[in-house]
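Methods — Computational structure assignment.
A single polypeptide chain was analysed. Its primary sequence is given first, followed by the predicted tertiary structure written as structure tokens.
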Amino acid sequence: MSGFKYAGLEVTGTDMHTSAKDFSPSLSIRICTLGEEPLPFPEGYFDVIFSKSLLEHLPNPHVYMKEALRVLKAGGLLITMTPDWESCHTIFYDDYTHVKPFTIKSLEYLYALYSLENINVEKFIQLPIIWQYPFLKYLCHLVSPFVPIRTEVKFLRYSKMLMILCAGKKTLY
């Protein structure tokens, strides 16, 4: 969230733990236990909704989708990042809070199920150095087959564990 604020955007976040406010005291964070209560925003409140590493923790992602679309403006953009099941299936459940894995196809289908338009889904390497130097992506692809999935070296682990990045627009009607 801090990166979005640094880019000049107005940022509001939600979390289920009150301690989240301590991590980023300069940000507006509202406490909400999705599934037990609705998101604490009125209909059509946001232009963009971004979630990272959330959907895989929800036993029923439909609750999130319905609430996200309720608070998203018509024509607004919904962006989701979630671990790529194909690249991390052997360690996905090492995090005991993971309950729902996704593939490119399943996330694309979920977005289509809720009539999002202009859906774009791709695998995403979550290493900022790759964004700055895209040619390093090829190095990651070369090295990743030889990297143990449970390595503690973040560059190596994240060159192997990919995320799925999905974006879609809420219909105008």
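Note: The chain has eight helices and six strands.
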